[in-house]
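Troubleshooting entry. The earlier prediction with adenosine-5'-triphosphate gave an output that would not parse, so I re-checked the input for stray whitespace and re-submitted. Clean input:
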Amino acid sequence: MSQSTSERSRRRIQEKLEAFRDQKTGGTIQHILEFNKTPVDLKEDVDKFVIGQERGKKIIATAVAFHYRRLASALKQVLGEYKGDLEQALKNTRTPKANILIIGPTGVGKTYTAETFSEQVGVPFVVEDMTKFSEVGYVGQNVTDILVDLLVAGGGNPLISQMGMVYLDEIDKIAAESVSTRDVSGKGVQKGLLRLVEGVENTFEWGQERISISTKHVLFIAGGVFEDLKNIVKRRMVKQSLAGEWQNFLLNEDLVSFGMERQLMARFPVKVVYDPLTIQDLMDIMTKSADSPLLAYGNDLKVWGIDLEFDDEALRLIAEQAKQEGTGARGLISILHRILLEDMYRLPGTFTGKLHLDRHYVREKLA
Ligand SMILES: Nc1ncnc2c1ncn2[C@@H]1O[C@H](COP(=O)(O)OP(=O)(O)OP(=O)(O)O)[C@@H](O)[C@H]1O
Ligand SMILES: [Mg+2]
């Protein structure tokens, strides 16, 4: 008797959980199908988090908004034909994809931008490190890994996962070592990536189910530092008597000279160059970004009744120090930590009120 009751209640819990999961995934799917933000709206959402990089964010916002509007409208059109079966609809639509390549120094917001866009659109997001591809020299197993990562990011729902974004980190590390020596492994890995980016479907075991996932509708964003690319472009500009900022003259052939496969670069038609962060950007990241490390420390201290306050001069000094370290905004976190460590250790429990830190204090802590 007691066993049947517990079984019954277990089943009820199970049903509830499934209903919840359906509701949740159903909501996410609906949300994607109804995506109707304009590029301007989308950029404004992202601006709350990602500081600076104005031109780049504009280009990416346009590409991302068009991708999801195009996907949503194509799916809605064929959904009727397949009596609302989204799986069939996904299989039987093809939309032109404009994958994005972001080039720029370390720590200036490449990965962060991609992640923020995925959050604002409301789709799964995964980061895949390309250096692991170059280690094995072939792509097979890694592709399955990526699909599994997508499935996890999509909460186990393959339909949602297939509409997500994949960030290919350090894509420049799979460049052929040198075009003249015909580095084979880099080339092979890049060729293998072609299929993934274009759309590859794999079936694998997932618990007791067999699940199929295709990357046909996945938006790929690749990022890399591409050290020295600037000089490749500039040399060509001199040869062709072109004048102006190199970023405006970047061509596929420059990336090919760098060691990238022409076919692969052709699948990333949207190219964006991110700039080094200025002192003002670094200050704004501390004071304006919704994800600001300074605000995070401030909130930590608030719990103890301490109001953290830096004056402008102090913030400028921190930004200058970060700039000097050359790790972009990443430097801010460690610098702030260095400055605040002592106070964070000592003050809680002994002090409440305003903790005002000025330029002298910062200078002393950083010395
Ligand atoms: N433009 C920015 N606006 C706001 N925060 C930023 C910006 N750039 C970087 N950050 C902060 O710094 C962190 C590191 O940035 P991110 O991971 O995007 O660097 P990246 O450009 O991808 O560098 P890498 O080439 O080393 O991968 C982010 O998580 C974010 O907190
Ligand atoms: Mg990154």
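This one parsed fine. The domain at 279-366 is CATH 1.10.8.60 (Helicase, Ruva Protein; domain 3).
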